Amino acid sequence: MAIHRVNTDDYHDQLQRKAERLRAAYGEYTDLAPELFPSPPIHYRLRAEFKVWQEGGRAHYAMYRQGEYKKPFIIDEFTVGSELINELMPKVLAAVNESEILRKRLFSAEFLTTLSGDALITLIYHKKLDEQWEAEARALQEKLGFPILGRSRKQKLVLERDYVIEKLPIGDRTYQYKQVEGSFTQPNGEICRAMIGWARDACKEAGGDLLELYCGNGNFTIPLAEHFDKALATEISKASVNSAQENIRANGVDNLDIVRLSSEEFTQAIDKVRPFRRLKHIDLDRYDFSTVLVDPPRAGLDADTCAMVARFPRILYISCNPETQLENLKVLSKTHRIERFALFDQFPYTDHTESGLLLVRK
Questions:
Q1: Binding site for S-adenosyl-L-methionine: residue ranges?
Q2: CATH code of the region 2-41+188-361
Q3: Using CA atoms, how far apart are residues 336 and 21, in angstroms rounded to an integer?
Q4: Using one digit for the tens of pLDDT, what is the confidence trace for 89-134?
Q5: Is there a contact between 358 and 340 (Cβ–Cβ < 8 Å)?
Q6: Is 264 considered catalytic here?
Q7: Mind listing the pLDDT tens digit for each residue in 137-168?
Q8: Which of 320, 323, 327, 339 is labelled catalytic?
Q9: Domain-wise residue ranges, the chain
Q10: How far is CA 321 from the centre of its chain?
Q11: CA 57 to chain centre
Q12: Can you tell me the distance from the alpha carbon of 137 to that of 321, in angstroms, rounded to the nearest whole number?
């Protein structure tokens, strides 16, 4: 068996090189050096997915290089994964190999963990899950002390729950989040805390009302809402909207509304192009938006959304793809200047860079 380890010795140098590349890329728009938010060098990923390689009547965790999906690399330790993932990996694999029912036609295992010590294990199969599987999985769940979820084609078998509860200390309080299996969550917990803390600091004197697009489960919106009179957030995923509603209640936030709209739909709504039934309880004219927060997918903001966002006095733009953020800056820089600039090292030891901008109207 191989061990998946990373060389931490040059982590600082790698991060500095990322910062230099990012600063050079944004040099046309700002002289600022990015504020750096380093990741823990190991055990930073809170979720992991492993293929299961079956050979000689035994199951093994496997990973593949991109484009080489017939050449598995068998692993038994994953040092970039959280300590809890590494603790659970051998226990789950041992139980799978002790049970023909759990092992047969198993092709993937997923681990979702939290900084606060919760976990969910999902086992994915090329077979229908029956009562025998359920009995074996419940026995494993009892042994591990964490919930097991079974999946196969058109089947999802929830034995206890399909989510974890994260608790993030930020500032002078702790925020609680329900994170549902299959829904997007930030993979690097400490970087998630850093991003929220940075965004809160950037908003602390903004006043007025907040709009957030692409809000997910309320990861940013809930901690930021206290800095504003009112907050409105949009998200297209029904599962994420449901989680956000629960998270609002769990955190006692009373000035925040979530609506299930895409950014394109919200642009049409605020421009009064057409009405939306999902907005019937929201009077957009009541809001005095001082700040808009966007954390879009890798494709960045579409042209209409970018133009709409440019109307706001302050724009907080979190990006997982600086290339598309730079494309949007061609538009946004006509009306706004960069007041703050950050690099969040979500994925150490890779070329991936996440950036944060606070843009203020000129």
A1: 186, 214, 219, 235, 295
A2: 3.40.50.150
A3: 23
A4: 999 999 999 999 999 999 999 999 999 999 999 999 999 999 999 9
A5: yes
A6: no
A7: 999 999 999 999 999 999 999 999 999 999 99
A8: 320
A9: 2-41+188-361, 47-164
A10: 14
A11: 36
A12: 39
